[in-house]
Amino acid sequence: MAARQEKPAEAQAASLSVDDGNSTHHPEPVVQPATTQEPPNGGYGWVCCIATFWINAHTWGINSSYGIFLAHYLNHNTFPGATRLDFAIIGGLSISQALLVSPLATITTRRFGTRVTLLIGVFFKTLALICASFASQIWHLFLTQGVCFGWGMGFLFVGSVGVVPQWFTTRRSFANGIAASGSGLGGLTYSLATNAMIERIGLGWAFRVLGLCACGVNTVCALLIRDRNKHIGSSQLAFDYRLFKRPEFLLLMGFGFLSMLGYIVLLFSLPNYATSIGLSAHQGSVVGAVLNLGQALGRSPIGYFSDSVGRLNMAACMTLLVAVFSLAIWIPASSYGVLLLFAFLGGNVAGTYWAVVAPVTTETVGLATLPAALSITWLVLVLPTTFSEAIALQITAANGGRYLGAQLFTAFMYLGAASLMWMLRAWKIGQLEQAEEEEEKSVRPRTSYLRRLFAVARV
């Protein structure tokens, strides 16, 4: 069944995205002859893949180190008068603003090209980190580490996330998994480095070093990346409301929404959870680093096997595993070793959404509609990414500092996400079976006509 799912994916998804019965404008991207051009399935695409890998390492990877900042803020009176909820919302803003700015990033990509969009992201991200180093009040941190950092990450992410799938067909999920694993490697590196820098050179210089590293690497990668928007007739619409009329797209949005509610809690809470059970700040940073190590190691195999066993199948199974690990390992974890085990195993599958979002969205709506669909996706994810960690901290505070409620919340969100992905898989199978039936019906009349002709000849 997995093989049946993969072979006609591009052709059928593209045909489904052409007309939903309400197409009254912008038909150009669908009818361009360039859309029939086969992707090179590699070539310079591997350069784009590696460049996107390093962009992810210096956007989402650096953002992953916010768990270290959060633990430092909560354990030290860095900003007098600030509450736990303030710090939780700052971490959520850094991600939600990246997603909220996606329509604008999509528009700049359409008008000025991918490279300009990426360089805008480099500017905002560098500005945010350098300015955060001089923050003395909590609202300074909201504007810098929250809003401005999120804008920079958004332009870089939106500008690069749709490029890798344009260069591949049969190895699309594998290449996307490699690119996505950059966030895990970056998170591993910067979780350890951030804690060490805060202890040795102080909070301000930790921000400045991160800003300079991000500026240098992201600028080089922005100059290397090339898109194939013109070759595939990419729509690049900032908001295509017609997608909301398609049930399969709504299932995909639900999958992402619930996945993010669970993922953000894992990403930001583990270092502080470590200190809550009596571990040191250094041990908490190691736990956060191991979680990111798991993401770095896990995303490429998830992408590789997605191409062979089915992208929807892999997304559903790996998402379900996160819920199982949360219930079976994280909840009873009360020692350093067990928590490290959960961080590694959970990290391998926790970021499944980011490894499969572009290929699964392509599978659902088609390659030409991918940018418009992703633009809507990022907007839908604004709410869960903003408030997920705040919800977890509030649940924890209501339970006297115990994380059991937050752990159950994480597990059930992943369970719900896996259920929606299985429903999307059922829809995909139904579409393939319907296409096969229609193909058989188109062949049967010709067959019966030939039989009658031979019957007449025999008579």
TrEMBL record:
Membrane topology: Multi-pass membrane protein
InterPro entries according to UniProt: MFS, MFS_dom, MFS_trans_sf, Proton-linked_MCT
Pfam family, one: MFS_1
Transmembrane annotation, as ranges: 87-109, 116-135, 141-162, 205-225, 249-270, 309-331, 337-357, 364-383, 403-424
Domain Major facilitator superfamily (MFS) profile, chain residue ranges per copy: 248-459
Gene3D superfamilies to which the protein is assigned, alphabetical: MFS general substrate transporter like domains
Subcellular locations according to the entry: Membrane
Keywords, ordered alphabetically: Membrane, Transmembrane, Transmembrane helix
Positions of the UniProt region annotated as Disordered: 1-37
Family, per entry: Belongs to the major facilitator superfamily. Monocarboxylate porter (TC 2.A.1.13) family.
Family annotation (PANTHER family): MONOCARBOXYLATE TRANSPORTER, TRANSPORTER MCH2-RELATED
Protein name in the entry: MFS general substrate transporter
